[in-house]
């Protein structure tokens, strides 16, 4: 599929395609042999796994306790647009930034690139709502995590 879609595919009219430098955090995600599907490219579910893994690893590294913490993030919405194909043994590079940071929710924006040539393969978006582990009721984003988000990942104008 690489090279078969116009440069503007998956973006608003006239909008520039994202580059790795547009993201505050980049995470490596090596593909595996079994990530390829019968069509010879990385299956769509792998892109979702890459996004989820990159975001959760970032939060854990900044203090989110996924096993014992009072707050957990639940995915309430997600989407992914595909721009080109990856295939094993490609190493993917997942860019992470925040498009909107609310009181209890975060809208993550991701770009998935082939590490060898920085070609944009996919762009994704998903929303975490932080909830109390026990009650499952919305709770504010944990304070230390919010500080790291604001410092490292919030896109200008993305708070609200």
From TrEMBL:
Pfam families: 4HBT_2. Residues 1-21 are annotated as: Disordered. The keyword Transmembrane helix does not apply. GO terms for molecular function: fatty acyl-CoA hydrolase activity. Keywords: Hydrolase. Coiled coil: none annotated. Belongs to the 4-hydroxybenzoyl-CoA thioesterase family. This is Thioesterase.
């Amino acid at each position: 599929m690489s090279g078969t879609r116009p440069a503007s595919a998956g973006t608003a009219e006239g909008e520039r395609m994202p580059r790795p430098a547009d993201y505050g955090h980049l995470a490596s995600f090596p593909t595996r042999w079994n990530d390829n599907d019968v069509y010879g490219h990385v299956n769509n579910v792998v892109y979702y796994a890459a996004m989820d893994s990159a975001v959760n690893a970032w939060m854990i590294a900044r203090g989110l306790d996924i096993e014992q913490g009072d707050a957990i993030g639940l995915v309430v919405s997600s989407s992914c647009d595909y721009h080109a194909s990856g295939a094993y043994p490609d190493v993917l590079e997942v860019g992470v930034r925040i498009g909107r940071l609310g009181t209890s929710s975060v809208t993550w924006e991701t770009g998935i690139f082939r590490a060898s040539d920085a070609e944009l393969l996919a762009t994704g978006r998903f929303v975490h709502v932080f909830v109390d582990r026990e009650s499952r009721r919305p709770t504010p984003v944990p304070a230390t995590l919010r500080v790291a988000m604001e410092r490292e990942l919030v896109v200008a104008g993305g708070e609200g």
